[in-house]
Amino acid sequence: MRIEANFRTSGVASRSGVGQAQGGGEFRLGEAAASARAGSAPLVSGPASIGALLALQAVGDATEGRRRQAIKRGRTLLDTLEEMRADFLAGRANPAMLDRLATILSEERETAEPQLDALLDDIELRVRVELAKHGR
């Protein structure tokens, strides 16, 4: 970019000229700058936009919370099944684990994700099979 001036300075100012204003040029905005300024977007009000962002985050947290609960439930069921398997291999039977599995299954789950629902359905089916094997 090349900068052009309407006036030329005559060399370097002497020591006595320091601090004194030199006349000559003046700064003006061209028509392009004025029209660009007039076409700029209005400012967004701060509190309204912050409130909207917080509302969006709250909605995301609600759905994410249900998803986390469903995942936690599935992990708990799988962990309990694993403990039951270890007890079975060791020759022990633990009726408390069966009760815990039945209690978890009786709780209602809330998810809206088809893939997660399908996975939880498979886990719950396996738990129901184990409960049926033990007469519960």
Characterization of this structure:
By secondary structure, this protein is mainly α. The chain has a domain at 69-133. The protein is 62% helix and 0% strand. It is built from four helices and no strands. Helix 2 runs antiparallel to helix 3, helix 2 packs parallel to helix 4 and helix 3 packs antiparallel against helix 4 (114-133). The longest helix has 45 residues, at 46-90. The protein is rod-shaped and about 100 Å long. The model has no long low-confidence stretch (mean pLDDT 76). It comes from Devosia geojensis. Residues 1-24 are annotated as: Disordered. One of its GO terms (biological process) is bacterial-type flagellum organization. Residues 7-19 have a biased composition (Polar residues). This is Flagellar assembly regulator FliX.
In short:
The protein is mostly helical and 136 residues long. The chain has 4 helices and no strands. The chain has a domain at 69-133.
